[in-house]
Structures are given as C-alpha cells and as structure tokens.
C-alpha cells in the first residue's frame, strides 16, 4: 500500500472547493498555534495532501498568507459594500471613513498577526487585492466627502482645488499600516482607543465641518 497521503481531486470543478478547504485548514492552524507555525509542509500534512498541491494552489508561503488574508477579508468587504451604516451605505462619507478606520483598528486585534505577516512577507504590499480594495474604498469616500462639502458650501465661499484623492488615500492608510499598529501596541503601549482617536483627528483636519 502506498505511503503517500490521500490526494485532493484535481478536477476543474473541484479546484475552488479544494482551495477553500486548504484555506480553512490554514486558518484553523493559525488560530491554534499562530502565523509563525504555518508552513507549507505543515499544511500539506494537516490537509493530507502532497506538498506540490499546496504550491500549485498558492505558489509560495507568501502567496498562501496573501490568499488567507483575502479569504478572511471577504466578510469585511461585504460589510463595506452591503452592510448597515455607518460602515456600509447610508451614512455620510465622513462618517463611513471614520467607521472604516476604526473597524480596521478593531479587526487588528483579531487578525493583526496574519495581516502583518502577509504584508511583510510579500513585495505586493500595496497591490494585494485586499490592499487595493481598501485604497479604492477610501478614494471613493474621499471623492464623496468632497462632493458633499461642495454641496453644503455657501455660494459666496471661495472654491478650493480638488484634492489628489489617490495620494490622500495612500497617506491616510499609512496610519492603518499593520506594522505601525503592531509597533504602537507591542512597543509604544498605545491602545486601540488612542489609535481610533488619531484616525478621527486626521479626518477632522482633512474634512472639517462646513461653517
């Protein structure tokens, strides 16, 4: 009898289910032992598949971490797009930006180790799907906030130059970078509450209420 582990089906119709199974097992391993203990060999052994199967799905450990991060982000992304206000539609752009930043900070308590490992272990720090979606979300809300401010502005008020929302999104999201949030908490002793207050302060300075 062969000593090789059972193989996951390689049929095209099973590819998505196989990948989902591997991601769920990887998430369970991280929950049990932390991100540092997740290896390609360990996942293959736990899932009872050949190591080559893991590499075919994810390419590398960095690819696995990025895919796992995207997997855990799906629910958060649904909340941003379809969820109730203020995180989802129905609140002002400024309120949604405030809720977004505080939600990212709160979620770091749960998946911060994974976020930091995925971003630090990959040169796709800014081009990973989750990072792109966050940046696009912030850009859309910045444009909406600009439009709301223009609507509320007195006709006699001087017009302002439209902001470079793409660059502003990068700058704002720098305050939510996993490495910075981690350093704040582990080294500087800065609480999530203070981090959330800073996010609110940045938005107040950037998007002051109309007089």
Automatic annotation (TrEMBL):
Cross-referenced Gene3D superfamilies: Tetracycline Repressor, domain 2
Domain HTH tetR-type stretches: 16-76
The keyword Ubl conjugation is assigned to this record: no
Origin: domain of life: Bacteria
Transmembrane residue ranges: none
Keywords: DNA-binding
DNA-binding region: 39-58
UniProt-recorded Gene Ontology molecular function terms: DNA-binding transcription factor activity; transcription cis-regulatory region binding
Matching Pfam families: TetR_N (PF00440)
Name used for this protein in its record: AcrR family transcriptional regulator
Species for this entry: Psychromicrobium silvestre
């Amino acid at each position: 009898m062969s000593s090789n582990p059972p193989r996951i089906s390689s049929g095209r119709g099973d590819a998505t289910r196989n990948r989902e199974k591997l991601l769920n097992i990887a998430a369970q391993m991280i929950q049990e032992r932390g991100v540092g203990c997740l290896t390609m060999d360990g996942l293959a052994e736990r899932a009872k598949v050949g190591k080559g199967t893991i590499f075919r799905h994810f390419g590398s450990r960095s690819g696995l971490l990025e895919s796992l991060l995207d997997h855990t982000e799906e629910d958060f992304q649904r909340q941003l797009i379809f969820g109730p206000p203020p995180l989802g539609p129905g609140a002002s752009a400024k309120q949604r930006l405030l809720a977004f930043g505080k939600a990212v900070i709160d979620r770091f308590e749960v998946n911060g180790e994974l976020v930091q490992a995925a971003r630090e272990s990959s040169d796709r720090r800014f081009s990973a799907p989750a990072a792109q979606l966050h940046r696009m979300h912030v850009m859309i809300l910045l444009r909406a906030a600009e439009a709301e401010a223009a609507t509320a502005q007195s006709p006699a008020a001087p017009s302002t130059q439209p902001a470079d929302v793409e660059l502003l999104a990068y700058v704002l999201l720098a305050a939510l970078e996993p490495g910075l949030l981690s350093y704040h908490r582990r080294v500087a002793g800065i609480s999530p509450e203070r981090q959330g207050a800073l996010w609110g302060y940045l938005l107040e300075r950037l998007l002051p209420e109309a007089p």
